[in-house]
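User: Just a sanity check before I run the rest of the batch. Below are the structure tokens for the first item. I only need the designed sequence back.
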């Protein structure tokens, strides 16, 4: 895992917004497959194609960035094919990445699976888990998209939300918390296969590694439509 830090330091790419900007050349493809990022030739909007045959909308740039680091995987399909995929809904922020709030409520939430929100009740709790710069992780979700989320129970003090990546101080190993176990991410291949981003790794010492090692992509982790 020591190679991970060097790899991500040298491969960070600048991303713009959820719509495609002209300097990225998407891959042209005759037909899309479940799990693809898709767009219509001549249009900028990008969608996620779910395994249910529906396309899902990224409501803003931050939501897209919680799942993908750039637009390199976007494929271009025909107008007829795009219209054949009905809209399935809006993509929610990926667990273990950003904290979210709405402008009309000061509460800050961690995001868990399927858009479940867990209120981080105090600043002390936020600092304990996310560090002193925790506020930089907070993004505003428009009221119109907040209804895509479900309010769960508040996080207890020292409780770790599902989906976070953690690393102990002075160590190189990275672990994925699946709600029960802190699973070792085996290597760079497994890290990339699950589309993890090093910027989301938290320094956290209060845990014991457990569970099976994460050796490759796992569908429940990378399913963007949730």
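Assistant: Here's the designed sequence for the first item:
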């Amino acid at each position: 895992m020591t190679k991970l830090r060097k790899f991500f330091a040298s491969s960070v790419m600048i991303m713009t917004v959820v719509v495609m900007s002209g300097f990225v050349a998407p891959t042209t493809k005759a037909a899309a497959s479940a799990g693809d990022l898709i767009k219509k030739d001549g249009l900028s909007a990008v969608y996620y194609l779910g395994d249910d045959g529906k396309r899902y909308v990224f409501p803003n740039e931050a939501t897209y960035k919680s799942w993908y680091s750039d637009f390199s995987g976007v494929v271009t399909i025909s107008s007829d094919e795009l219209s054949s995929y009905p809209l399935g809904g809006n993509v929610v922020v990926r667990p273990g990445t950003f904290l979210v709030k709405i402008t009309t409520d000061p509460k800050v939430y961690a995001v868990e699976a399927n858009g479940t929100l867990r209120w981080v009740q105090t600043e002390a709790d936020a600092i304990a888990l996310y560090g002193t710069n925790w506020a930089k992780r907070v993004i505003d979700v428009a009221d119109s998209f907040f209804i895509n989320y479900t309010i769960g129970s508040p996080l207890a003090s020292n409780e770790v939300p599902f989906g976070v990546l953690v690393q102990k101080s002075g160590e190189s190993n990275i672990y994925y918390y699946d709600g029960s176990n802190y699973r070792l991410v085996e290597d760079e291949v497994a890290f990339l296969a699950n589309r993890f981003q090093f910027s989301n790794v938290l320094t956290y010492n209060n845990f014991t590694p457990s569970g099976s090692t994460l050796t490759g992509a796992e569908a429940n982790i990378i399913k963007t439509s949730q």
